[in-house]
Specification:
44% helix, single chain, 7 domains, 3-stranded antiparallel β-sheet, globular, mainly alpha
């Protein structure tokens, strides 16, 4: 497989790729042992992908054990050696070359215990020694010169908390401080120092914590029910989740860390996680990496300059010349490098070896071994009498069983019964649909892997036994995270729980946490009024009974946080809204501390309307048309590329064309259903607004094809969904952010492309027609019409011309 193919596989099947790469070097260990070690080391999805990509870009680390490399590579080498690997090299010290059994790192390099010691000049005694700890100012000290602070840490911290919650129990505070760092008293002292510097770390500003121990301390106090203590939200996505990753002086969640690694490739313009940087330090995506001249070598077979796939004693070999025979695949009919099947003896290409499909004989989802691409046949149906297949002792189906016991499907059913059964040994009727959906999952191994996650098994067991009520409120009591969100989506998709607007629930929870964590009673009162009776009520009115979108949620959060920033600044100046004057407001507007200035203007104008303050002026910024240049030619070039490039995915092509031709935001595209597409008398229309739009033939073919072949990425709890672009959660569409990322990978600049499309359409259609056909508000359409030109002459010209892309029924062409 080529490097580009391996990089793609690192995203879709990272653990399988790690197993194959290690198995190519290590012959002593079996594939199952390597997979078990790789799964244990790789951990979560992001880490496993990073580990797989690192091995693809530098596979020699398996045999030389040398850094620079990620920490996960060193952990993998150590665990493989413990499992009995002999060909895999252990990690070695970057300075002395000593073989390591444990790792110490400086950047991307590994060092032994001697070479890795940090030796600097002690601030107290001046001797050059190993750093024992750091003082209150962060300066290094040796172990012989401790920074003595005779105060009792519990007394100091309890005094700080008492100003927030006067009734706080000292014993509760002491236990939380002890559990923060049970074996490191100096860490507890650093927590005390940090809280003295900034007590707001306890009331919602924990994202500014200099140490992770502070976040743990806040969580322990919050769990103990100490009043006034608020868990901090991620400063980027504003979710109240675990935030222990440092980024630009703040603590953020792991999702925002992953998004921060996304940059624009200097060559193709796509926004992706980088593969490397060129000689000038410019970012390169994986696709451009394989075309970088620095990574190309001359193949000894074809003589072309390409990325090297393998090396022989004579020299490098490119992917097209790898030592596999080029044959006609017996399944798909394509001429490609093939291997001979052990069952049939016929050639089978790499794609058919890895693909799973529903067997046309037995109807089960299995690997393809014979037949054709349209009529695949699985292994047991190809050679039923082969010794490779053994009947399952439970269901009797022929399976390739690697160990004694039932097949994966029967194992899954038994595990589900263990989790969902009540005290009588039967599954409650409310959970029967969940049991049936999971038991019939296409990939039993995927369902078993999901159930093996500790919190999933615990939650399902509690629901089945009745220890936890089967309600949304009971799930809300669990810690927030992706796993709980997916459990909820599976329960909703299988109709175990009713549907609810999750974005609105998140916003209401965020409002509650933010309001209760504010320092002053007057500020909490004003924030509650602003959030409840203005932001939330306006959002419910605008959504008109539909689910709130992620962009609407973010917009409301930004407005609320802007109000918090302004009130915090007024409190620091010993002011409030009633005593603030125009000079004070302008002083904040021009200070370095100003944040979310435009959103804060909404709060000030609301306070004026509610007569909370007076004699203040905060004018709104009027939109005077697009500020970016309109590159209509580039827009049409991209549209033509999407129309004619069959190598791109149909869903990406259709989504890109809806943005480029009809100015639809990713949030609107992601919420389209198959009911929005209408076909009558050979004419295909799509309903983006009140009036359906006639689609040109090439776009119509893509729309009909997507409606026919759409498939959810959710592996569990799948139900028949009407979403045109299904997402990763069962019964849910693709998220607006994920849709935007897919369009960015196509090289589309979302804001510029939509502005250009809307500007061009506004020059060809009046505001009323634009609003009805595109589904935008009439006031927005009027503003774009004014920016694009006057439509006074439209009535005289309507009989002579019509937009080639948008045509209302009844309007003559």
């Amino acid at each position: 497989m080529s490097t580009a193919g391996q990089l793609d596989r690192a995203v879709t099947d990272p653990v399988g790729l790690i197993t194959d790469l290690v198995a190519g070097v290590e012959k002593e260990l079996g594939a199952e042992t390597i997979r078990a070690v790789g799964t244990a080391v790789a951990g979560g999805r992001a880490k496993s992908r990073q580990l797989a990509k690192a091995l693809v870009l530098r596979p020699a680390v398996l045999t030389d054990g040398r850094s620079p490399a990620p920490r996960a590579i060193g952990d993998l080498l150590i665990e493989l050696r413990k499992a009995g690997a002999s060909a895999v090299a252990p990690p070695v010290c970057a300075e002395c070359g000593k073989k390591l059994r444990t790792l110490q790192r400086k950047g991307q390099d590994w060092y032994c215990g001697v070479c890795g010691q940090e030796t600097v000049e002690c601030t107290a005694c001046g001797n050059v020694r190993r750093v024992g700890f750091r003082d209150r100012k962060g300066l290094p000290r040796c172990k012989m010169c401790p920074d003595i602070d005779d105060r009792d840490p519990v007394t100091v911290v309890h005094g700080l908390i008492a100003t927030i919650a006067p009734g706080a129990d000292r014993d509760v505070v002491a236990e939380a401080l002890r559990r923060t760092a049970p074996h490191r008293p100096h860490y507890r002292q650093r927590v005390v120092w940090a809280l003295e510097e900034n007590p707001r770390l306890l009331t919602g500003e924990g994202y500014l914590a200099p140490h992770r121990a502070i976040l743990k301390f806040v969580d322990l106090l919050h769990e103990a029910g100490v009043a006034g203590i608020a868990r901090p939200a991620c400063p980027r996505c504003h979710r109240v989740v675990r935030i222990d990753k440092p980024l630009d002086g703040q603590r953020v969640c792991r999702n925002c860390i992953a998004k921060s690694r996304i940059e624009e490739c200097v060559r193709c313009g796509a926004r992706r996680e980088l593969a490397t940087r060129d000689n000038q330090g410019q970012p390169l995506c994986p696709n451009c990496l394989i075309t970088d001249p620095a990574n190309l070598e001359t193949c000894i077979v074809c003589g072309k300059s390409r990325m090297v796939s393998s090396r022989t004693a004579d020299g490098p070999i490119c992917p097209n010349c790898r030592p596999l025979p080029i044959l006609l695949c017996s399944i798909c009919g394509h001429t490609a490098p093939c291997t001979l099947s052990k069952l049939t003896g016929l050639p089978r290409c790499g794609g058919c070896r890895q693909r799973q499909a529903r067997c046309t004989v037995c109807g089960r989802l299995r690997g393809i071994h014979s037949g054709t691409a349209d009529a695949p046949v699985c292994g047991p149906c190809t050679t039923p009498d082969a010794e490779l297949w053994r009947p399952c002792p439970s269901c009797g189906q022929a399976e390739r069983l690697h160990a004694p016991g039932p097949c994966p499907r029967c194992t899954l059913k038994r595990r589900l019964h263990e989790l969902l059964a009540d005290d009588t040994g039967s599954i409650p009727s409310k959970l029967q649909s969940l049991h049936d959906a999971l038991a019939s999952a296409e990939r039993a191994a995927t369902a078993m892997s999901w159930l093996s996650k500790g919190i999933v098994a615990t939650v399902l067991s509690d629901l089945g036994s009745g220890r936890r009520p089967l309600t949304h409120e009971a799930l809300d009591e669990l810690p927030e995270g992706k796993v709980i969100e997916h459990i909820r989506s599976v329960l909703v998709a299988t109709e175990v729980l009713p549907k609810r607007d999750e974005q609105m629930v998140r916003l209401e929870r965020h409002v509650k946490d933010l309001v209760t964590s504010h320092a002053t009673a007057e500020g909490r009162k004003n924030l509650h009024r602003y959030a409840t009776w203005h932001l939330l009520r306006r959002l419910r009115r605008r959504s008109r009974g539909k689910e709130v979108t992620h962009s609407q949620l973010q917009d409301a959060r930004q407005h609320l946080r802007a109000a918090v920033y302004l009130l915090d600044w007024l409190e620091e100046q010993n002011l409030d809204l009633s005593t603030c004057r125009q000079a004070d407001l302008e002083s904040w507007m021009t200070s370095d501390a100003v944040r979310l200035r435009r959103e804060a203007g909404h709060f000030v104008r609301w306070a004026l309307a509610q007569k909370i303050t007076r004699d203040l002026s905060f004018p709104a910024e009027r939109w005077n048309g697009p500020s970016q240049p309109m590159d209509n030619e580039a827009r049409w070039d991209t549209a033509r590329h999407l129309l004619h490039d069959d190598t791109l995915k149909p869903e990406d092509r259709l989504a890109g064309l809806l943005l480029l031709l009809y100015a639809q935001w990713p949030a609107a595209i992601s919420r389209l259903t198959v009911d929005h597409i209408e076909e009558t008398d050979g004419t295909v229309r799509i309903r983006l607004g009140a009036v359906p739009v006639v689609l040109p033939a090439p776009v119509a073919e893509l729309a009909l094809r997507q409606a026919e072949i759409r498939r959810s990425h959710a592996a569990l709890g799948q139900t028949h969904s009407t979403w045109l672009f299904p997402g990763g959660q069962p019964g849910r569409p693709i998220s607006a952010w994920a849709m935007g990322e897919r369009l960015r990978k196509l090289g589309i600049r979302l804001a510029e492309a939509r502005s250009t499309a809307l500007f061009q359409l506004a020059t060809e259609l009046p505001a009323a027609v634009l609003a009805r056909t595109l589904g935008i508000d009439i006031t927005v359409a009027v503003k774009w019409q004014r920016a694009a030109g006057d439509w006074a002459a439209y009535a005289a010209e309507v009989t002579r011309r019509t937009s080639p892309l948008i045509q209302e029924p009844g309007v003559p062409t």
